[in-house]
Amino acid sequence: MRLPFCAGGAAALWAILAVSSVHADMAGHGGPVRALAISPDGNGLLSGSFDSAAIRWSLKAETAEEVLRYHADAVNAVAFLNDGRMVTAGADARIAVWMAGRRQPDRVFEGHVGPIVALAVSPDGALLASASWDRTVRLWSLSDGVSRVLEGHSQNVNGVAFTPDGGSIVSVGYDLTLRIWRLPDGQPEIVKLPAPLNAVAVAPDGEIVTGAVDGMLRMLTTDGKVSGEVSAGPTPVVALAMSADGKLIAAAGIGGTVAIIDRKSRSLLRTLVGPGAPVWSVAFLPDGETLMTGGADGRIRRWNARTGDPIGSNLVGTPADPLVAYAGDHGADVFRACVACHTLSDKEVQRAGPTLAGLFGRKIASLPGYRFSDALKTMDIVWTPETVAKLFEVGPNAYTPGTKMPEQRIGSAEDRRALTDFLGRATSR
Asked: What is the pTM of this model?
């Protein structure tokens, strides 16, 4: 996943208009909704977006009450504190703590050197944990901002959660490991799993649930033993939420669906189908039945998780497959893994990464309106079939060091050639 920066006038205008407008499907962000959190009383919602803004919503009125603008890049994680304050964290590696009604954060935590993608608040409300693509977890004191670094992951850390007693922190990463950090000493128990991990949640009874890029949910005991697994779907799981009673798990996938899992029976109850765009975030209301989802189209939707029915005027239908016109095209099949983050046309709503429209012949990091890593701006690469093939042959970390793009390779020369042939046809329209 790449993380964009959308600072255009349209994005700002949408955020401003949302403050005074009622939207049953809660449209206010100018980009994909990357993070959701529910207030302790269940009446408020905090959302973070690739548009670099966070919005505090009233769930009763379904209106935006406040737009929080501070971060210089995507807001990837949000949380409510026990006292009603809000926390936002972003791809700019900063954490901001807010009081409702104030235009600037009361406190800013700095220390991470890569995008922050997940937050967790300790049960007693005294500590904040953050997960970052700088391969660390940090533990912050909310009283004085003092932080502690937990090191050990060898790739991006994508998720973090506290155990119910607050005695441990669980982190998951792209390095295939789940780590249980026992506090106060912080020594981890390390569990190796079969696939890169994108998300983690912990049940009230202490059971750990992870979501992986292979579409699987894996359950682990408090001491890290795998105790079950469920397939959430064919596409990577990118977000997890658990109901307050621990009975239901919502697993969001980049394919545009959300799987509702019965945790005790390890069974798929139903799949919620939205408009087809990736679902980046999920959160349960305290009733254990109402689920909020945040999509790539910038909208927040409300569902009855037990029946699968949308609540309000949510847009529901068959997922729109952007590759339907390329059925049977091998290159399109290879590209399907890229659909979550990249569009083929600049007429579509921007996703996590820049559009690929007009890709070949374009210098790296030169697309207007997208904030690229500083390291990319100094590179002398022009995208051609050969350079794109090389990118996936050696991997982004080796070919474009400093990129926000996670490590991925295409081992088959035939697959790389099919992909570049497809991009030549599909992005030149």
From this structure: 0.72
